Amino acid sequence: MKQKTTLSFFLLCLGLLNFSNKTLAQATLNNTLQGQSSHKIGLALNLGTTPGIELAYAFNPKIAARLGYSYFKYDVNTTTTTSGEDVKLGGKINLSMATVALEYHPFTKSSFKLIGGASYFDKGQVSMVVSPTGSYTFGSTTFSPDQMGNVQFTVDYSTQYAPFAGIGFGRTVPTKRVGFGIEIGTYYTQSPAVTLTGEKRLSSMSEQQAKVQENLKDWQYWPVVNLRLAIRLD
Predict the structure, then answer these.
(1) Domain with residues 39-232, CATH architecture
(2) Which residue, among 192, 185, 189, 193, has the nearest Cα to 165 in the 3D structure?
(3) pTM here?
C-alpha cells in the first residue's frame, strides 16, 4: 500500500512538473508575442524609384497597415548622341502619389514580407524637349539649330489609381528601434497619355503621335525598387 502511495505521489509530481513546464513555455511565448506586438507604430523612409515617407501601424507581428506619400522631381539638362547627331535634352520628371498598403510577414522568425496596396498618382510625368545642337544641310540650304526647331515629348501617368504588389525584407515597425530593408515590386497602371509635337522644320513629328501612343499602350508596369530605413516610434 505504501509503495502504491509513493508511486502515485511520484507520478503526480511528474505530472505537475510537466504541466508547469508547459505553462511556463506558453507564458514565455505569449510574453514574446506581446512584446513583439506591443510596438505598434513605425516610420519608414524610401530611397529608390518611388522615394518618400510612410507611417505604419502593426495590428500584430505579422500584419501592418501603411500610409505613405512619394515625391520626386528631377530636371534634365544634358546632351546626347542619337543617329550620329548631337542633340540637347531638356525637361523634367515629376512624381507625386499617395499610397495605402498592407504588409504581411508569413514567417515568424523572418523579416520576409508580401506587400499589396494601391496608389493615387497625382503626378507621374516625364516631359522632354529635344533640340539639335548643330546646323543641318538639306540640298543647298543650311539651317541653324533655331531654324530647325525642336521636338516636345511627354509621357503622362497622372491622375489615376494603380494597384501595387511586391515582396521585400524588413519590417516597417521594427522589433528594434531602427531597421533596414528592401522592397521590389510593380504598379499596374493605365496606358500613359503621350504627347508628341514638333516645331518649324520638325513640325512633321506631330504626325507620329498616334503611332507612338499605340506603341506605348503596353507600358502599364511601373517598377518599384526601394531601399528602406524604418524607425519604431513607440
Answers:
(1) Beta Barrel (2.40)
(2) 185
(3) 0.74
